Automatic annotation (TrEMBL):
Species lineage: Bacteria, Pseudomonadati, Pseudomonadota, Betaproteobacteria, Burkholderiales
Name of protein: histidine kinase
Residue intervals of the Histidine kinase domain: 214-433
Organism, as annotated: Robbsia andropogonis
E.C. no: 2.7.13.3
Pfam families named in the record: HATPase_c, Response_reg
Entry keyword annotation includes Ligase: no
Length: 578
């Protein structure tokens, strides 16, 4: 059989791409096969290949039919991983969507990395691809071993059928072998049962995720109605009225509710990793309330901030999920009660994991006073599906997810554990510079439009939302700023109104029965191709809007002033600045 090889085939025929990629691969002790042409790549691609690394420009030159034929020739266990380096264009909403439609159906094991990218991201992707490829070869070997075992069983049965007169001798001679075979079969049955139980748990978590997403969407609608009505009430109060303080407190509560809904939505979606500067102490402070709710009365949690004002580079949603996973692990490790401590440490040179490149890192530790981890198991805790918990207590994916998130962010994880005393998981993330202010700066044209038009004077808005409370609040808010509003409670009714008169802006809810916001927007733009569309939604996944021109998305809940500005910007052609 062909052995596993860490060979990486590189196709990057333009510029210095091939030389740069060769240098990076050299740091991984990989001897790349650099192909000057796509035909060369097809000749080099075979069963022993470890992975293929190519640029999107190179992808355009490949004979896709020949590539698909080559991939179809792979054995069933083989699925060669491809890593595609691609640049995002202004028209791109998703690099994966743009490129995936061009790829052969057999080319399914593909990772897309946006250029420019860091060497750490590329190295992590290459190592992950080679790890997956090595597992394919392991599965091949396991399949061969099972086939050999079955063949031995058939041979034993044939010998027994031919040799009735020597039955006692044959049974005595084969007892030990049959026992070993039975042990293997029992082991395989246990592994199959464990996989089935893990699949059942994953399906349950997927269902819970969908339910959580729906709840968060409804919660965002409630918060939208509350915040809009609070804004309207605030406008009716005289300056200096004592109720202004109460309204401000209530608006602050809706903002905290918005963060809670965002955290719920993080559990219900699979999202692309988006690295950005994160103020770690602030994030943990905001997350602490949700984390404490998962503990019982005998357990306590405290936060020891040690990196005030410091920023690290991570995906904030995924970082929150990693912290909650570690808190959940600590909780389950303390059935008789105890304390979970979340600590942060400013950059320091000592105590860094060996696999980190030199630099400044912020350390985030989650420790517990639970039962601890046996020394023989510490090196296995990050393996997918590895768990010591009974069914219903975990899928074995939580810590592997923590490991993956941390390494994708360019960091590393260390584990310290003493049986009977507790465990500490310490995550190291690269330090990031503080982000610039993200306050919206209105373009001069928008400011002039607001001054000259009396905000929304003369702008016709068709509002379509099936939630009566949200719709009434938005109508009141828009009309108070002199927008001319026509409303509809369904997509079908909205389309009927669209045939009677063309609005300046279609303001439509994303999630509605029968005809959702995306369907209505497409139908409306068939009637009026230049129609501006503003979609409001309580969901985070709005992939159905891809391909709709002149469309913007505004996530609920939002301030009425924000809505006014977006409509003005869209009408005045200055939406890029809002």
């Amino acid at each position: 059989m062909v052995p596993f090889s860490r060979q990486v085939i590189v196709l990057a025929p333009y510029g210095r791409d091939a030389a740069i990629l060769t240098d990076i691969l050299g740091t991984l002790d990989i001897d790349p096969v650099v192909c000057p042409t796509s035909q060369w790549l097809l000749e080099q691609l075979h069963e022993a290949s470890g992975a293929v690394l190519l640029t999107d420009e190179a992808l355009a030159s490949i004979d896709l039919a020949a590539l698909e034929k080559r991939l179809d020739a792979q054995p069933p266990w083989s699925d060669i991983p491809f890593i595609v380096l691609a640049r995002r264009s202004r028209a791109d909403s998703s690099i994966q969507q743009r490129l995936a439609a061009r790829l052969p159906k057999r080319m399914t094991n593909v990772v897309y990395i946006e250029r420019p990218m860091s060497a750490l991201v590329l190295v992590s992707a290459i190592e992950a691809a080679l790890t997956g490829r090595r597992r394919q070869f392991q599965i091949r070997d396991e399949l061969v071993a099972v086939a050999a075992t079955n063949d031995r069983l058939r041979q034993a049965e044939a010998r027994l059928a031919r040799s009735h007169e020597e039955l006692e001798h044959v049974v005595a001679a084969r007892t030990a072998e049959l026992e070993r075979t039975n042990n293997e079969l029992r082991h395989e049955a246990r592994e199959r049962q464990r996989a089935e139980e893990a699949l059942t748990q994953a399906q349950k978590m997927e269902a819970v995720g969908r339910l959580t997403g729906g709840i968060a969407h409804d919660f965002n609608n409630l918060l939208m109605s509350l915040s809009a009505n609070l804004e309207l009430a605030n406008r009716q109060l005289d300056a200096g009225h004592p109720a202004h303080g109460f309204v401000a407190n209530a608006l602050g509560a809706t903002q905290r509710g918005t963060r809670l809904a965002s955290q719920l939505l993080a559990f219900s979606r699979t999202q692309k990793l988006t690295l950005q500067p994160v103020c770690v102490d602030q994030l943990i402070q905001e997350l602490a309330t949700l984390a404490r709710h998962s503990l019982d009365a005998t357990q306590e949690m405290r936060f020891v901030p040690g990196a005030p004002g410091a920023y690290l580079m991570a995906d904030p949603n995924q970082l929150e999920l990693a912290i909650l996973n570690l808190v959940s692990n600590g909780r389950d490790a303390m059935p008789k009660g105890g304390r979970i401590t979340i600590s942060t440490y400013a950059p320091r040179d000592n105590d860094l994991p060996a696999d980190l490149t030199p630099g400044d890192y912020i350390e985030l530790c989650v420790s517990d006073t639970g039962v601890g981890i046996a020394p023989t198991l510490v090196n296995q805790v990050f393996d997918p599906f590895f768990t010591t918990k009974p069914v219903g207590k975990g899928t074995g994916l939580g810590l592997s997810q923590v490991w993956g998130i941390t390494h994708q962010c360019g960091g590393a994880v260390k584990v310290r554990s003493t049986p009977g005393e507790g465990t500490a998981f310490c995550l190291f993330f690269p330090v990031a510079a503080a982000p610039e202010s993200t306050e919206a700066v209105h373009p001069a044209t928008l400011i002039a439009a607001k001054a000259m038009q009396g905000v929304g004077s003369g702008i016709k808005v068709l509002l379509v939302d099936d939630d009566d409370n949200v719709r009434d609040s938005l109508v009141a808010g828009l009309e108070s700023e002199n927008f001319s509003v026509t409303e509809a409670s369904s997509g079908v009714r909205g389309l009927e109104l669209m045939t009677l008169a063309r609005p300046d802006v279609l303001l439509v809810d994303y999630s509605m029965p029968n005809m959702n916001g995306a369907d209505l927007a497409r139908a409306a733009q068939k009637l009026h191709p230049e129609l501006q569309v503003l979609v409001i939604t309580g969901y985070t996944d709005t992939a159905a809007l891809d391909g709709i021109s002149n469309a913007r998305v505004l996530h609920k809940p939002f301030a009425l002033t924000r809505l006014n500005d977006m409509i003005l910007a869209m009408v005045s052609g200055a939406a890029q600045g809002v």
